[in-house]
Structure formats: structure tokens, C-alpha cells
Amino acid sequence: MLTAHDVTFRVGNKPLIAGISVSFSPGKLHLIIGPNGAGKSTLVKVLARLLRPQAGKVEYEGVDISRAPEAELAKRRAVLSQAVEVAFPLSVREVVMMGRYPHFGGRPGPEDEQIADEVMQHFDVTEFSERNYQTLSGGERQRVNFARVLAQLWRDGANETTSTCRYLFLDEPLTFLDIRHQIDFLKKIRTFTDAPDVVTVGVVHDLNLAARFADQIVLLNEGRVVANGAPGEVLTAERIQTVFSVTPTFVPSEHSGVHLIFN
Amino acid sequence: MTKQHASRQILLVALAVVTLLTLAASIRYGAIDFRVAEITRALASLLPGNAAPTLDQRIFLELRLPRAILCLLVGASLGIGGTLMQALFRNPIVEPGLVGTSSGAAFGSALFFVLGGVLHIGTSLWSLPIAACVGGVISTYLVFLLARSREDGRASIVMLLLTGLAVNALFMSAIGFLSYIARDPQARSITFWSLGTLSGASWKAVEIVAISTIVGALIALRYAKQLNALMIGEEEATYLGVNVNRLKWIILSVNVVIVAVATAFTGVISFVGLVVPHILRMMGGADNRFLIAGSALTGATLLTLADLIARLAVRPAELPIGIVTSAVGVPVFIFLLRRRQYVF
User: Cβ of A97 and B232 within 8 Å?
Assistant: First the structure.
């Protein structure tokens, strides 16, 4: 369970998000939508504690995370960002193994190696595990990063049934992907989120993808929550008109119930 | 990873062997060449119960040997310094000499040399390296302060290099000024500092540089994993559990100290720190654990080779070693600048 209480983050005097209270439960996929500058990315960074809010607090399972040690937090919180650049030539496997860094001291143990193998298989990157990350295409890179992020949160069901949740944040990870990869990613995130201890909160731009994959949608505008609930409740013609300044037409769809077309 | 790990281990062993071979050449050849038998006898004379060393043997024990070992240590320091700076800035064209550390340290040493005598500041073993560290800290801090953008407080690489250029020029002219006002014997050693030389090597210097190099290398190795995480960006490193600000401070401090202490005894030696990490990345990839260990060995080897050239090229006189490293390093630097596909 992830809860934000009355969170405000300012740069200078300008609040990027103001007085946001929202909570997210495990096993569900939560997506944040809103126009440019609404504070989506800021909210995700505050929830993941990259940014520390000037007011309010963020709690993981009721515990304020503002004082949690960085290394401890990294064992159960991971963030998938857009377009990760690597400064030096690293092999794909080395990048994926970074996901295990919070879990081992000096060198990766056999368990870490095994997890790296599994996630690479899961994202179809095993075949280029020895290739230089810098030579990959945007879509391939993002698959590698997704593998890295899941390696960070990977748990073997058998021996680690702890009570703590795992938190996965998605900071606009679909931005540079084509539509096939976008859908493919969201399906994989969907599957991962089905685990009963995984809290997933993400930012996406495409309203139709949000409508199709989210259990809960948070609509932000000018740093505040405009609406929060199931896709059907949040995405009304009137709200989309006010927030995005475009007029949607709702078309019935066999996948997601409804599909939006903008005029 | 395990296969790669094994091949890196083999590479490091090979590098260590090469380092030892260059060391052997370095103690054998110079203004006078020593035969192996002579070297063995000189070393044997140190053992209790053996005859006191002859003049030649003393030259070997008190001049040649400490110089060769100091050269290894300084090379290792500069190599590690280059690796740390490149990892910290996520950029392969920085090195300690380019961001002011070396020239500041040289200025600190020169100032101590000129004023220390006048002001009768206690000349303990450590006062020279401390003066160099203070100079190195000031110049490095100055570069970072001036290179920082007013908008977001970050230092771009272009700004860093340009500011480093300016601050280097400033400290070099300050060293020039000191040598102008200094009395003659001091002046000579100050000039040597700005060019870099190992001719002042002594066992005392070896002792101090050994401490800073070894301690610095161990701390650096301890943070190698965190430096690896930094390769994918500061935000990503934070998400992987790295306290990025703390890491930056620690690595920058280690770097300033090992480079400044080395500079205190040898003067400014440029480009070793730039070239060494590149050679290693080409051979064994970018893992910082490998790079730190490897750059110590490769830095030691390269500087020893440079010292051999400096001693043999105009024998029995010798060149300042900084001239040799710059002559080799500048073309490499320009090549890297022109070839790089990295974003500034």
C-alpha cells in the first residue's frame, strides 16, 4: 500500500504539484495521465523519493519513507525511466545485473546470476546479452532496462514471502517506443502487477492505452488531482475537454470497452 | 559475466607481469646500466651480516631503486585518478590534470618551497604533501565553482574543460612568478615542478606516496560498484540505492589527495590519467572494479616506460618526464576528441 498525504513539491516559488493526497494498492495497475506540465513526472519522482516534498509525506505500508536508507529502499522500489543513456561501453548483461546491485555486496551470487538469466529470457534479450548496450536500438534498450528494473524487484516466491510490498514506478517509459512495443510492455507490466505484493504506478501519455490497461487512473492538471478512479469514471468527455482542450468521441471497442477518437 | 570476469582476471595478471618487466628494465637501465649480478649484490648488501654496499651499489639503492618505485606509485595514482574522474563525470575525456588538480598541487608545493624557508614553517615529512593537497583542493574547487551553470548548478563538460584550462594557466603563471622571485637553487626545482620530474625521488617520498596510493586505491575499489551504477545516470544510480552526493564527495576527495600527493614529489605529469582508462576499456570493458585495478597497473607501466625514455633519450642527462608524457598524450587526446561519438 502506497499513500501520499497532502504532498507539495516546489521549485523556487512555483509548485509543480500541490497538496496531492492519493493512495495506491497492491495488485493493481495505476496510471497517471494529464497534459504537459501537469506534474505527472514530478509526482512519480516524489513517490519514488528521488525528489523530497517540501510539505506532506509519502508512506510505504504506513511507514514514512523520508528517512529510509537509500540502500534499503532500493531493495523494494524500482523505477523504469525513459531513454537511459550509458556513458561507457557496457554489455547488456552488465546493465541487467545492475538491477541486482542492491541485493549483493561485492560480486553477484549464483542467485543473482540466475535472476539475471530469467529476466533476460522474459524480455527476449538473452540473444544479445554480450552485446554493447550503446549499439542497441531504442526499443531494445528499453527491453534491457525493463529487465534490469524487474531484476531489482525479482523475488523467488518460495523463500521470500515477506510482508513488505514491492513498488514499481514507470516514469514515461513508453515515450520512445513504437506501438507494438508499447502494448507489449504494458502487457508485461500488467502480468508483473498481478502479484499480490506489487504496487505499480506509472505515467503514460496515450489515453487509450491508459484506458485499456489501467485499473485506476489519476488525472492531473496544474499540479492537482482532477479525478481519480476506474478508467470509465475518470475519462468523461467533459473532463477531457476541460483538461486537454480536445473533444473526444467514444467508440465502442472489443478490447477496452471504449475507444477515444479526438477531433 | 563469469566468463568475462575470468578473462578480466587473466588480463589483470598479464598487466601485473608487464608492470614487473618494465620495473626490471627501469632499475637496470639509466645514466649507468646495472648488471643483474650487481643488482642482486646491492640488494644482498641490505641483509644483515653482508658487506657494506659499494659506491655503485649505493647509487642503485639510494637513487635508482627509489626512483623506479616512486615512478610505479605515481603512475598508479595518476591512472586511478583518471579512472575516477572519468567515472564521476561520465565522460571519457577528463583527467585530473585537466580540471586543475595537478597545477594547483604543484603551486601549493612551489609556494611551500619558496615561503617555507622564509617563514620557517615546520618542515616535517608531511608538510610538502599537505601543501600540495591544499593547493589541489583549492584549484579543483575553483574549477567546479566557476564551471557551474547559474541556472541549474550543474557543470557541463565543455565549461569544466575551459575553466580547467583557465585555472591551469592561472596556477602555472603563479608558479612562474614564484620561480621569478625565488632565489636560484629554489627556482630550478620550481621549474622542474611545472614540467614534471622523478629526479627528486627518495625513500621518504616513496613512503608517503605509497600510503596515499594504496589507501586511495582501496577506497576507490570499495566504491567501484557504486561508480558502475553511476554509468547509467545519476537518477538511475539513486534508484539503485546509491547516495550520489556522498559518492561524489568521496571520490573527488580520494582523487584530489592521491593526485596532489603524487604531484608534490614529481610535479605536473599530464595525460597519463587520460590515456590509461581508454586502453583498459578497449581491452576489458568498462567495469570500474577492473578499471581501477587495471589503471593502477597500466599507469605504473606507462609512467615507467616514459621515465625510461626520459632517462635514456639524452643520456647521461635526462628530460623532464612531463615532456615525454605530453608528447605522447596530446596526440592521443586530440584523436579522442575528434573520434568520440559521446555527447558533450
Answer: no
Judging contacts by C-beta atoms under 8 Å, the chain A residues touching residue B2 are: 113
Put simply, the answer to whether B232 touches A85 (Cβ < 8 Å) is yes
Parent domain of B315 = 67-339
Model pTM? 0.89
Is-cis flag, bond preceding B316, omega within 30? yes
Report the alpha-carbon distance of residue B215 to residue B334 in Å, rounded.
33
Q: CB neighbours of A50 closer than 8 A, spacing ≥ 6?
A: A79, B235, B238, B239
CA distance B287 to B9: 12
Q: Is residue B110 part of a domain?
A: yes
- Residue B266: count of CB within 10 angstroms of its CB: 33
The mean pLDDT of B31-42, rounded to a whole number, is 85
Distance (Å, whole) CA B175 – CA B165: 15
Going from the C-alpha of B209 to that of each of A46, A63, B202, B249, the distances in angstroms are 45, 48, 11, 22
Contact between chains at B236 and A84 (C-beta distance less than 8 A): yes
pLDDT for position B342: 46
- Write the CB contacts of B67 (distance below 8 Å, at least 6 apart in sequence): B198, B199, B201, B307
Task: Place B340 in a pLDDT band, splitting at 50, 70 and 90.
Answer: low
* Overall number of domains in chain B: 1
**Inside any domain, residue B45:** no
Q: Which residues in chain A have Cβ-Cβ distances shorter than 8 Å to B285?
A: 89-91, 94
Residue B46, all three cell numbers? 641490505
Instruction: Enter the ipTM.
Output: 0.92
pLDDT for B343? 40
Q: Are A32 and A201 in contact (CB under 8 A)?
A: yes
Q: B35 lies in a domain?
A: no
CB atoms within 10 A of CB B316: 9
Nearest Cα neighbor of A19 from A225, A260, A231 is A225
Task: Supply the CATH number for residue B218's domain.
Answer: 1.10.3470.10
Q: What whole-number percentage of chain B has pLDDT above 90?
A: 40
How far apart, in whole angstroms, are the C-alpha atoms of residue B170 and residue A249?
67
Q: Are A21 and A57 a contacting pair, CB within 8 Å?
A: no
Q: Does B156 reside within a domain?
A: yes
